[in-house]
Write a structure and sequence with these properties.
81% helix; mainly alpha
Length: 124
């Protein structure tokens, strides 16, 4: 008589399973859950203000630098236009941060109802 034992062997590898799940998650359709939606809304509040503030600051810095260059290169003929350009540049740089704050406050007020509704749903 033969001893015919059927056996089942299984080797579990946590690293392999984690890698399989990581690859699988790349191909599954993304479903935005409420928490992810809340994070995106919160991050979107400062984006518009940041972009506009940076543009104002950079353009102001370039205008200020252009005014300084005109003073150095243009001489007395370009003195008044270069001073005006420099003042415009300084004004743009000075008002860049208050503009950022104002736009961010407006965006917070606009998005507040959506954020509060999502936090109420998540809080339950």
């Amino acid at each position: 008589m033969e001893n015919n034992k059927e056996t089942f062997e299984y080797t579990y590898s946590a690293e392999q399973q984690a890698e399989i799940e990581k690859i699988k998650s790349k191909y599954l359709p993304k479903a935005d859950d409420k928490l992810e939606q809340l994070r995106k809304l919160d991050a979107s509040v400062t984006k518009k203000g940041t972009v506009i503030g940076l543009i104002m600051g950079i353009m102001g810095c370039l205008a200020f630098g252009g005014g300084m260059s005109l003073v150095l290169v243009g001489g007395m003929d370009w003195l008044l236009p270069s001073i005006v350009l420099g003042i415009i540049g300084v004004a743009a740089m000075v008002f860049a941060y208050p503009t950022y704050k104002k736009i961010t406050e407006q965006e917070r007020e606009r998005i507040a109802p959506q954020i509060l509704a999502l936090t109420e749903e998540l809080g339950q």
